[in-house]
Amino acid sequence: MKNLSVEELELKAIEIRKDIIRMLERAGSGHSAGPLGLADIFTALYFDILKHDPNKPDWDQRDILLLSNGHCVPVRYATMAHAGYFDKKELMTLRQFGSRLQGHPERTKLPGMENTSGPLGCGLSQACGMTLAMRMNKDHHRWVYVVMGDGEQDEGNVWEAAMLASKYRLNNIIAITDRNNIQIDGPTETVMPLEDLKDKWEAFGWHVIEIDGNNMEAIIDACAMGRAIVEKPVMILAHTIPGKGVDFMEYDFHWHGMGQLPDAEVARKALHELRTLQGKIRSEHE
Amino acid sequence: MSDLRLVDIKKDMENEATRKGFGRGLKSAGELNENVVAACADLTESTSMNLFRDAFPDRFVEIGVAEQNLVTVGSGLAAMGKIPFVSSYAAFSPGRNWEQIRTTICLNDQPVKIVGSHAGVSVGPDGATHQMLEDIALMRVLPNMVVVVPGDSLEAEKATLALAEDKRPGYLRLAREASPIITTEQTPFEIGKAYVYSHGMDVTIISTGTMTYQAVLAAEMLFKDGIDAEVVHVPTIKPLDAVTILQSVHKTKAVITVEEAQINGGLGGAVAELLGEEFPVKMKRLGMRDRFGESGKPDELLEHFGLTAKHIALAAHHILA
């Protein structure tokens, strides 16, 4: 899937953001800021970085993508649909009774979904188990990518996994922290300070790369660099803007949680911001 | 009794802890299937995982004192086709990591086998913190989870091999203390099956784990008193063998349950739920009744908490009076 230019990937990310907004409006609930902030990372993963085949979701040589902060799953659903895992129409069933697109992701419901998550702090441990199994199988050419939130790093389980990955030098793990500085109760540094986060991960024995997580080239380069690190697991601290692409959502933690979901007027305005690239282009429907 | 090839139940028998049988079973499972792997949270010898570790060092993961990580790493191993056995003391796993088990193993449907050793008050002098009593209730309530409590070390060995073949998540509850070996190599074991170890007409004693030895002793005591007790050994608490239990209870119309665990949500809870819906009869549940254990010698604790043959026999007299 490596046939899109950086510009094309950026345009793809805009399309994915539009679908995220549409899905959430239809669903009537769900997280908006995190998924929008992660759209560039997921676009880069599914359309450039991952070795995968949407027609064979259980291909035994695929790279694995774990979503540890399951509440951001709308971005994964939207990106999977764009990548061809299922029809985009199904995105509109998000959070509805009988849908494969559960409010938080369930592995057993949707082919291509690698883990069930929502309760925080588990993805990295699962990545440890997966890469340990790959090592036992002498399978050294696959990577496990883990997208994690920053708020979820309040969980002790994360640091248990951090120690284990370092102990066993699980270099086939590339973790990506969505460093958007918000969690439900407010800014991360107010709720429970994480800084100096780079120092913490380095102290735990990880190779840390810091990037602008809304810069497509930076995301792709960091993952390439991460795959070249053979002695340590890799943590990419990706600084993202929550609500990226929607002017009035960026940086406002109120958009993180449930209950602040766009009503029709707000959603229309959000979509308009995206469709017009904040007034830079004409929307197809206007 | 003879059809199940049990040994003659005496006061003085060959003893071995169920955790030892697990250790042998895990090594055998590893020899039979290269996908069987193991992980432990800093209690490798205590949980008898050292036999497996020494035989298959490349298939063993030392997690350190981190039980949340233990089971979640297990979920990842299973996702790649492994059959992971993850062990610690039951107080810590599944005591500390229940939500990880719920989400990443049960809801995620990964066949991780959680091995909780040192369950029950018979842990002894370590005291209440280490005497896990709530594990059966915690694991039984989870959809997809199989719960097995072997009655002796031989059955623990067979249960381990059976769990390695089973495609579901599983919990294996083990004891620290040596207990009488009451079965033989030929005694059958199948996940989901209860076994009538002693036939009778007057009262059904339903027991799990090492309490079955006490139940059989109690049946012999009751026989001398003219009471004909049936002993149903229930090594699989979930899925519960409703057919075998109901067959016995239809006949006797009186039930005693015995377990070294909280009766709330434990075997007593499970049987009460079944009989409450299907066939309500007089019932007495023996076990821990909404309280913690304490330090002491294993035997004196079992006596103190009413988990010996004498107390089971008394309960039978009481319920039939």
Q: Could you characterize what this model shows?
A:
The complex is a heterodimer of chains A (286) and B (321). Chain A is α/β, with parallel strands linked by helices and 286 residues long. In chain A, 39% of the residues lie in helices and 12% in strands. Chain A contains ten helices and seven strands. Chain A starts with 5 loop residues before the first helix and ends in an 11-residue tail after the last helix. Chain B has two domains: 17-180, Rossmann fold, CATH 3.40.50.970; 192-320, Rossmann fold (3-Layer(aba) Sandwich). Chain B contains eleven helices and 14 strands. Chain B has helices at 18-32, 50-55, 67-79, 98-107, 135-140, 153-165, 211-224, 242-252, 267-278, 298-304, 309-320; strands at residues 15-16, 36-40, 60-62, 83-89, 113-117, 146-148, 170-173, 179-180, 195-198, 203-207, 229-233, 236-238, 254-262, 282-288. In chain B, the strands form three sheets. A seven-stranded mixed sheet of chain B has the order 3-2-4-5-7-6-12, with helices on both faces. In chain B, helix 3 (67-79) packs parallel to helix 4. The two termini of chain B are 27 Å apart. The A-B interface holds A 106-108, 114-119, 121-122, 125-134, 136-137, 156-157, 160-161, 163-164, 167-168 and B 37, 58-59, 61, 63-64, 66, 68-69, 72-82, 84, 99-100, 103-104, 107-109.
Short description:
With 286 residues, chain A is an alpha/beta fold. Chain A has one domain: 3-Layer(aba) Sandwich (Rossmann fold).
**Oligomerization:** heterodimer
Mean pLDDT level of chain A: 90
CATH superfamily of the largest domain in chain B: Thiamin diphosphate (ThDP)-binding fold, Pyr/PP domains
Query: What is the CATH architecture assignment of chain A?
Result: 3-Layer(aba) Sandwich
Helix content of chain B: 25-40%
* Count of alpha/pi helices of chain A: 10
Radius of gyration of chain A: 18 Å
* Gyration radius of chain B, in Å: 19 Å
Structural class of chain B: alpha/beta
Number of distinct beta strands of chain B = 14
- The fraction of residues in strands of chain B falls at 15-25%
- What profile does the largest beta sheet of chain B have? 7 strands, mixed
